[in-house]
């Protein structure tokens, strides 16, 4: 899809929904706009595979996934006041704080995170999540159960 | 986390789809019926219209199209000029600051994520962390973060299960800089356990483009020059597009790539 006019039209129709989705998850306007642009980069790349009946479904899913990635990338931003901050980084005792979530994320496909948000945050039923993600209901249920089991194991 | 379900049972996502007329019949009828009996829901739908108009004013389509055009152009057409500028060490208390050169306005973020995603190690996969000193705090720079000349940054690594490693960077001019080990021809022994911050921090210079940081690790020692040469070759032939690629190295080596974009000075 190289036609900029087509991209223009797609953005006019779906852009606000995508930006709102990113804002809701990221709660930061600048981050949301940055990720929203990335969503449309993906759309350009994968236009041929887009479900043209309900493009909003795919855009929503991509926006969710990329927003979660952004949250993952920024979740350990330290905020240390003072001039000796770099030295404090070098001495930081808690640099391994990301390990728990890293382990969690690495054990499950990104799509599972997206499903979890759709179900637990967006209030979609398992049937709706399954439809959005192109899986069976039992497949979604199984993925979410495994995610819960990992959470319980890691926390305990 | 709480579900985003309104009192009338119509969630935001459902209302968005209804507004776009992209709901299956059953759900569309469900929303229609709810709208008919619920003034609050009708107000929410009106709010979506207003919000959409405001967002398109704030970020007009031309802005997105131009942004994507720039990203595509800078990602695919930038000529790589071999340059002699590297990281210039600067004295700063106990650390050595050096010159970080360019970072691209291209969008390496998804590519970097893909790099990370294809890195698979039993247990924890090795990765890099990049921090920037701000006025009163330190912030972590994720992939695709924006950086500026004179930003002071610091690298840290998590070795995972790997015993030896090399940390390099390459800028938009194709200049490769070694960060670990600082000297010698062999990869550095890595410290396992918690992430380890390097003993140097670096100040970014004003070179344009991008800066790609690369952590290459293995279970056995390997030569640094093999990795440096692979990185140099890749960027000489592909330019910024190389940021999406893994280096041509043995499968026994893990690779983690983090790319930040460079903004001009304010």
Q: What are the SSEs and their pairings?
A:
The complex is a heterodimer of chains A (156) and B (266).
Chain A: H1 4-26, H2 29-45, H3 55-74, H4 85-91, H5 99-107, H6 110-120, H7 126-133, H8 137-155
Helix pairs in contact in A: 1-2, 1-3, 2-3, 3-6, 6-7, 6-8, 7-8
Chain B: H1 12-19, H2 25-37, H3 39-58, H4 61-77, E1 90-92, E2 95-97, E3 99-100, H5 109-118, E4 127-133, E5 138-140, E6 146-147, E7 152-158, E8 164-171, E9 176-180, E10 188-189, E11 196-204, E12 210-218, H6 224-238, E13 254-262
Parallel strand pairs in B: 3-11, 6-13
Antiparallel strand pairs in B: 1-2, 4-5, 4-7, 7-11, 8-9, 8-10, 8-12, 12-13
Summarize the biggest pleated sheet of chain A.
none
CATH class of the largest domain in chain A: Mainly Alpha
Order of helices and strands of chain B: HHHHEEEHEEEEEEEEEHE
Instruction: Look up the CATH topology of the largest domain in chain A.
Output: Rna Polymerase Sigma Factor, Chain: A
CATH superfamily of the largest domain in chain A: RNA polymerase sigma factor, region 2, helix turn helix motif
Overall geometry of chain B comes to elongated
State the helical fraction of chain B.
25-40%
Secondary-structure class of chain A: mainly alpha
Please report the number of helical segments of chain B: 6
Distinctive features:
heterodimer, A: 156 residues, mainly alpha, Rna Polymerase Sigma Factor, Chain: A, Arc Repressor Mutant, subunit A, 8 helices, 73% helix, globular, B: 266 residues, alpha+beta, 2 domains, six-stranded mixed β-sheet, five-stranded mixed β-sheet, 31% helix, disordered N terminus
Describe it.
The complex is a heterodimer of chains A (156) and B (266). Chain A is an all-alpha fold. In chain A, 73% of the residues lie in helices and 0% in strands. Chain A has 8 helices and no strands. Chain A has helices at 4-26, 29-45, 55-74, 85-91, 99-107, 110-120, 126-133, 137-155. With 266 residues, chain B is of the alpha+beta class. Chain B folds into 2 domains: 12-58, no CATH class; 90-262, no CATH class. Chain B has helices at 12-19, 25-37, 39-58, 61-77, 109-118, 224-238, and strands at 90-92, 95-97, 99-100, 127-133, 138-140, 146-147, 152-158, 164-171, 176-180, 188-189, 196-204, 210-218, 254-262. The longest helix of chain B has 20 residues, at 39-58. The relative contact order of chain B is 0.17. At the A-B interface, helix 1, helix 2, helix 3, helix 4 and helix 5 of A face helix 1, helix 3, helix 4, helix 5 and strand 4 of B.
């Amino acid at each position: 899809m190289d036609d900029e006019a087509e991209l223009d039209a797609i953005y006019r129709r779906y852009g606000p929904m995508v930006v709102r989705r990113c804002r809701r998850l990221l709660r930061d306007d600048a981050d949301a706009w940055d990720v929203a642009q990335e969503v449309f980069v993906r759309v350009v790349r994968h236009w041929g595979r887009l479900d043209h009946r309900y493009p909003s479904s795919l855009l929503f899913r991509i926006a969710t996934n990329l927003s979660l990635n952004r949250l993952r990338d920024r979740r350990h931003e330290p905020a240390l006041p003072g001039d000796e901050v770099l030295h404090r980084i070098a001495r930081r005792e808690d640099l391994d704080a990301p390990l728990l979530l890293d382990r969690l994320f690495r054990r499950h496909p990104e799509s599972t995170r997206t499903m979890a948000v759709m179900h637990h945050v967006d209030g979609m039923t398992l049937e709706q999540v399954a439809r959005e993600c192109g899986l069976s209901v039992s497949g979604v249920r199984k993925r979410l159960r495994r995610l819960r089991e990992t959470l319980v194991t890691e926390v305990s | 986390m709480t579900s985003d379900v309104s009192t009338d049972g119509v969630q935001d996502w459902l209302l968005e789809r209804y507004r776009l007329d992209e709901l299956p019949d059953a759900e569309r009828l469900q929303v229609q019926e709810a709208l008919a009996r619920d003034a609050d829901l009708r107000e929410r739908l009106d709010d979506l219209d207003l919000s959409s108009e405001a967002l398109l004013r704030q970020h007009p389509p031309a802005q997105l199209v131009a942004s994507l055009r720039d990203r595509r152009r800078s990602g695919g057409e930038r000529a790589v000029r071999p340059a002699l500028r590297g990281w210039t060490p600067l004295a700063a208390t106990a650390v050595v600051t050096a010159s970080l050169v360019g970072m691209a306005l291209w969008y390496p973020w998804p590519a970097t994520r893909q790099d990370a995603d294809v890195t698979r190690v039993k247990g924890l996969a090795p990765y890099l962390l990049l921090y920037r000193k701000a006025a009163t705090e330190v912030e972590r720079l994720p992939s695709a973060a924006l950086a500026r000349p004179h930003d002071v940054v610091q690298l840290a690594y998590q070795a995972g299960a790997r015993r030896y490693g090399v940390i390099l960077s390459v800028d938009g001019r194709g200049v490769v800089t070694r960060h670990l080990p600082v000297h010698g021809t062999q990869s550095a022994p890595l410290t396992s356990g918690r992430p380890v911050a390097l003993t140097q921090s670096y100040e970014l210079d004003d070179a344009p483009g991008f800066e790609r940081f690369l952590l290459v690790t293995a279970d056995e020692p390997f030569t640094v020059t093999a990795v440096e040469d692979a990185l140099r070759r890749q960027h000489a032939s592909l330019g910024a597009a190389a940021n999406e690629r893994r280096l041509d190295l043995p499968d026994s080596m893990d690779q983690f790539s983090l790319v930040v974009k460079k903004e001009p000075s304010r």
